[in-house]
Amino acid sequence: MADSYLFAINILRETTPLVQCLTNAVVMQFSANVLLAAGASPAMVDTPAESEEFARTASGVLINPGTPSTEQYQGMHNAISGALAVGTPWVLDPVAVGGLSQRTEFAAGVVEKHPAAIRGNASEVVALAGLGAGGRGVDATDSVEAALEAAQVLAARTGAVVAVSGAEDLIVSQGRVTWLESGDPMLQMVIGTGCSLGALVAAYLGATKNSDITAHDAVLAAHAHVGAAGSLAATRAARPGSFAVAFIDALYEVDSATIAELCSVREA
Amino acid sequence: MADSYLFAINILRETTPLVQCLTNAVVMQFSANVLLAAGASPAMVDTPAESEEFARTASGVLINPGTPSTEQYQGMHNAISGALAVGTPWVLDPVAVGGLSQRTEFAAGVVEKHPAAIRGNASEVVALAGLGAGGRGVDATDSVEAALEAAQVLAARTGAVVAVSGAEDLIVSQGRVTWLESGDPMLQMVIGTGCSLGALVAAYLGATKNSDITAHDAVLAAHAHVGAAGSLAATRAARPGSFAVAFIDALYEVDSATIAELCSVREA
Amino acid sequence: MADSYLFAINILRETTPLVQCLTNAVVMQFSANVLLAAGASPAMVDTPAESEEFARTASGVLINPGTPSTEQYQGMHNAISGALAVGTPWVLDPVAVGGLSQRTEFAAGVVEKHPAAIRGNASEVVALAGLGAGGRGVDATDSVEAALEAAQVLAARTGAVVAVSGAEDLIVSQGRVTWLESGDPMLQMVIGTGCSLGALVAAYLGATKNSDITAHDAVLAAHAHVGAAGSLAATRAARPGSFAVAFIDALYEVDSATIAELCSVREA
Predict the structure, then answer these.
(1) Of B248, B218, B201, B233, which Cα lies nearest the Cα of B6?
(2) Would you tell me which residues 225-244 of chain C have a C-beta closer than 8 angstroms to some C-beta of chain B?
(3) Which residue of A117, B102, B244, B262 has the lowest C-beta tally within 10 Å?
(4) Residue A99 binned pLDDT confidence (cut-offs 50, 70, 90)
(5) pLDDT above 50 for A136
(6) Which of B28, B71, B249 is nearest residue C70 as measured by Cβ atoms?
(7) Phi-psi map region of A117: left, alpha, beta (phi>0 left; psi -120 to 50 alpha)
(8) Between chains, do C101 and B53 touch, taking CB under 8 Å as contact?
């Protein structure tokens, strides 16, 4: 059913999934507020001593090496171990991978540890797909076509749902390609809208894990929730300070009907 | 005098206490803005090399191990030493204590170092009271009754004022129990409203240290300030993004008359 | 030409300079949003492993030791090396220097490494000027006169443009002293307005590096951009939560005409 992703938001709000975010310090506050407004519960437990035990009870885990200390890297490894031990879905956001050496090496390692989803922009997904595959690596173009091919390579190799954020979002899993038209360019003017989308992907995956919703639809639902909220916010605010406020309000406000109205989904 | 806590806000604004926050990265910005809007001055000095010297000149110190690195833990120990050396009141926020091992051990240690106040939710206070007392530990229920008993145990053992945040707030010290009705459920939808309340408790304790206001009333005043601001903000905004903005505005705006009008205080 | 600084904002928006911020965790999110709204692009790459390589491609670098871990200090040293290697302008914000020992020692060292600009308040600039000069150090008064003398000493010794934030801002370089009247006292009620100004100074220096705009005018332009936005925001919001939102909106909205109207510049 093409619109089954629309039911996911109801499950999110009924279950209030607990999302463990190991993410960069720039977007911690915003990501927590995005999760709360959308209907999830945030926890930023990221230390080596605690991240594994917490991942065993969390509904979903986000790994985003945006400003990673040595300890946070270790916390990320431990959280992934905890998540894998009990089947908690975890999401990789390969922020700036391809452009910076340490995080590129980190991502190349953990991408093989069965992330449920990978979310990035075109350049990051292209870079990640090229790693360890004898491939094009970071010199690849970041055109939509390159991103589609890279996402398919990544999805086939890792089993993850791969999402590429852009003017149109692209959601790819083995055997399925979905394009999502939604959102507003003003989303690029507020820090953390991409990073918090990664957190929301973990929330949707956790919420729908034991439901009829597929992982592909869960990832699509997270993107549609953010996209619809961005579209709605843009009707109310034209400058980035007030847009950021309106975006949080809209995440809280939209429901499946609003999302259906504000998003255009196309299976390719 | 039952209403003497209402004078504390005037002292806060006259003295602009300098509050040193060793707190989690998720809420640093929000806590600083809460302190500024309320009438205090924030400083997030939390490194091992500088936290002790700073605690000697600060008006109050907050210890909140929400996302603690090894260095920040050391910084917390040093700040407590500096505070104790000169009599600066310090506040313990036992965030997620009981649920995570490392911070539980940390809190069990520092709670014996004469915090002026402890502020947490019911589960955290119950867990903290059970530690080292051969007690119930983290398996305790978090009912209001359990929290009251736990708060009384903690207050008797440590000499601290113990505050439990909830639908109604509970302020307990040796020989006194106060219930505060104020605030709005929307406060739960904005990250950092609890953590920044801990910072504001340190501000009120620092501001009133050399006044006629008791520590119990200072802690009550901080909760009433936040509660009244939450109530006022809820009359102006019904969604979390705009509520967060209205809450900061309201912290700046309320005075003792507004607080008296919007809060209901009951001595038990 | 006295008004040549007014052209810098157009260059900023045409070039969208990439600004690497090694700054404190309290203001990372706010600084990123300030840069985005003003017309620049933020990146908070601050780890030892990545900060040098990133500084080689950034347009400008900000060094602000507000809450510095051992690793972030190392990251700062590496970023400065990378910046110097390729001529990327870097900015020193000596936050709380003079009042705290570790960062004072750090600042005394790096200030000799050719910062393009130094931005602080009067006390910080006075303290920094006294360091290593056998001078007055931190016991200096922070009057405007002392700040002017200190800024001139610093500018002569380091070759940097030195900016002192205050009721009036002071921009000093060798042979030139400019006073800027703009802004609003409400800017002091929002955390990060000073720290993000340091980031914006790096943005303006990076944007105008290969233009006819002098470094002095670039620093002045950053201050005028923030000052005009503060003035405009104050006409729309009288409390700090809504003022912060209006300030970000205004940074996005002002142009050279608005800045000319809202700022008063005086060469001394």
Answers:
(1) B218
(2) 239-242, 244
(3) B102
(4) confident
(5) no
(6) B71
(7) beta
(8) yes
Task: Give residue for tokens 């992703």.
Answer: A5
> What is the domain partition of chain C in residue ranges?
4-267
CA angle at residue C157 from C151 to C163, to 5 degrees?
Answer: 30
Residue of A27, A100, A248, A249 to mutate when probing chain C, most C C-beta within 10 A: A100
Identify the CATH assignment for A4-267 out of 3.40.1190.20, 2.60.40.1120, 3.40.50.10770, 3.90.1700.10: 3.40.1190.20
Chain B residue with Cα closest to C68: B47
**Best residue of A34, A103, A106, A239 to probe chain C, by most C CBs closer than 10 Å:** A239
Q: Which residues of chain C have pLDDT under 50?
A: 132-141
State pLDDT tens for residues B206-251.
999 999 999 999 999 999 999 999 999 999 999 999 999 999 999 9
B202 touching C (Cβ < 8 Å): no
Q: Which amino acid is at B123?
A: S
Determine the 3-state secondary structure of B101 from DSSP. helix
A171-206 as b/e: b if 16+ CB within 10 A: bbbeeebbbbebbbebbebbbbbbbbbbbbbbbbbb
Q: What is the CA angle C111-C171-C159, rounded to 5?
A: 35
Taking CB atoms and an 8 Å cutoff, what residues of chain B touch C106? Answer: none
In chain C, which residues have their Cβ closer than 8 Å to the Cβ of B232? none
Residue bearing tokens 């008993």:
B149
pTM for the whole structure? 0.96
How large is the ipTM? 0.95
What is the pLDDT at residue B130? Answer: 87
Residue C5: phi and psi, rounded to 5, are -60, -25
Cα(B165)–Cα(B251) distance, rounded to whole angstroms? 18
- Across the interface, do A100 and C43 touch by the CB < 8 Å criterion? no
Amino acid at A111: V
Q: How far is CA A176 from CA A93, A170, A219, in A?
A: 21, 11, 13
Q: At what angle do helices B28-38 and C240-253 cross, to 10 degrees?
A: 120
- Minimal Cα–Cα distance from B190 to chain A, Å? 6
Which amino acid is located at C43 in the chain? A
Do B36 and C101 make contact, defined as CB atoms within 8 angstroms? no
Q: Which of A203, A235, A221, A215 has the alpha carbon at shortest distance from A263?
A: A221
Largest Cα separation within chain B, whole Å, is 48
pLDDT tops 60 at residue B140: no
